[in-house]
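REQUEST
  id: r-88c1
  op: predict_structure
  target: Delta-like protein
  payload:
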Amino acid sequence: MFVSTAAATTDEQCRVLDVSPDWTEDSYNSSHTTIQYAFRVTCDSSYYGPGCANLCRKRDDQFGHYTCSPNGERVCLTGWQGDYCTTRKYLLSFADLIITTQQSSISIGKLQTARFK
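RESPONSE
  id: r-88c1
  status: 200
  body:
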């Protein structure tokens, strides 16, 4: 973010600030006045990262099943995977009576079993 503090005179002070929870203190002095102030750059709710460019809003519906990390990355809810957490981690096939997950499977017809995490 670009911050400019310009006075009625030709004096001008400019700086670039990153998003941060930390306050920056500054002051402006003229012949008769002193102004002291503090400011910071923060993101609005649901926006994260440099320049607040990363949008993440938690959801649990047909468009995704996730929450957001402190950095604004999607974190899939239990049982979901994929970029937007729209793919179930398991697949149920009634034709073979096989339940398959990402890491383990159970086959009832063949008596093969494995634990689910």
